[in-house]
Amino acid sequence: MILPALLFATSLLSGATTAEIKQEAQDAILKLQKHLQKPLKANLKKGGPLQAANFCSTQAQSITHEINTSFARETRVHRTSLKYRNNDNSPKSDEREVLEQMQKEFDTGKKLPQLLVKKIYANTYKVYKPIFINKGVCLACHGDATTRDPEAYKDIKFHYPQDKAINYKMHDLRGAFVVKIVLR
């Protein structure tokens, strides 16, 4: 009788922990999205795709770093993709495996979870949130030769000669936000 009660209590604790992990990850993702999207939109409005591309190449990494230093505990958020533009966004081996599985499921028409929690070792988790190409304006920098803005892409190729983040179409899986959370 005690064992089932302990298992039930443990499952409740695990559920609460998973919910807390997901909430912390969602908060981190929203914070990074807000701090990247607002200036990206302003630059796009002010100078079009060329100025937006320049913003991304010169400021996105420092904004990500700044956001990561603002968290109270060991929480870190970043963006990654199988087709990355900036080497700083290349996936780690465990992230590559998850991204490959997500891409495989996406390609077969399966709906991806909004947040995917993976335990990587004791008290350490990675939470993945898929990123999709949901706006046509994204294709100005990430589309194919017919949809990319030529001036913006010239700037992108200057900053990232090995760019892989192209040839996307609307609704494609672009990559993921990854949040690493260490619980104490």
- Spatial order of the strands forming the largest sheet: 1-4-3-2
Give me the number of helical elements. 4
User: Would you tell me the overall average pLDDT?
Assistant: 91
Describe the largest sheet. 4 strands, antiparallel
Plain-language structure description:
The chain has 184 residues and is an alpha+beta fold. The chain has one domain. The chain is 53% helix and 17% strand. It is built from 4 helices and 4 strands. A 4-stranded antiparallel beta sheet has the order 1-4-3-2. The two termini are 31 Å apart. The N terminus is likely disordered.
What would you say about this model in short?
The chain has 184 residues and is of the alpha+beta class. The chain is 53% helix and 17% strand. The protein has one domain.
Secondary structure layout:
Blueprint: H1 2-69, E1 75-80, H2 93-107, E2 116-121, E3 124-132, H3 139-142, H4 150-159, E4 173-182
Antiparallel strand pairs: 1-4, 2-3, 3-4
Helix pairs in contact: 1-4
Structural features:
184 residues; 4-stranded antiparallel β-sheet; single chain; 4 helices
